[in-house]
Design a protein that fits this description.
mainly alpha; 146 residues; single chain
């Protein structure tokens, strides 16, 4: 499969997980589990691409310890694809955790949706938004402690 085809697949697959999280209140446990399965599928794809690159060999490992080395590494479209798969898997896993945590704490799903959108678009910003929301949330009466 070409890198372009893998890129298109890697962009399409996570949408299943993100849609599941958007509809999480309908069946939270199952839909969060679905999002996690999709994140694991992305992680497996990422691991396969890393393994294939290492087995292919033929060159030295990229220097990721300096900014110029990182820029050189990511100038290779295949390396960029591997990095993109990394981001997609972690952002989706983080979104699944946010949805699960919001459900456990009785937070309204409408308040979670902006957090999920930011996690999808700008991972750490969405996580920070969720953590701020969670810190300010008062537990609904009758819910057990986490």
């Amino acid at each position: 499969m070409t890198d372009e085809a893998l890129f298109n697949l890697a962009n399409a697959v996570p949408l299943v997980g993100w849609l599941a999280l958007a509809f999480a209140p309908l069946a939270r446990a199952r839909l969060v589990a679905l999002a996690r399965v999709v994140a694991v599928v992305l992680a497996v794809g990422y691991a396969a691409m890393v393994a294939a690159a290492l087995l292919k060999g033929g060159g030295s490992l990229p220097d990721l310890s300096t900014l110029p080395g990182l820029a050189r590494a990511f100038s290779d479209p295949h390396v960029m694809l591997v990095g993109w798969a990394h981001y997609l898997a972690f952002d989706l896993w983080t979104g699944a955790w946010e949805a699960e945590e919001a459900g456990r704490r009785g937070m309204p799903h409408g308040a979670l949706l902006p957090c999920l959108a930011f996690t999808f678009l700008a991972g750490p910003v969405g996580l920070l938004l969720f953590l701020a929301l969670r810190a300010g949330w008062r537990r609904a009466p009758g819910l057990s402690a986490p």
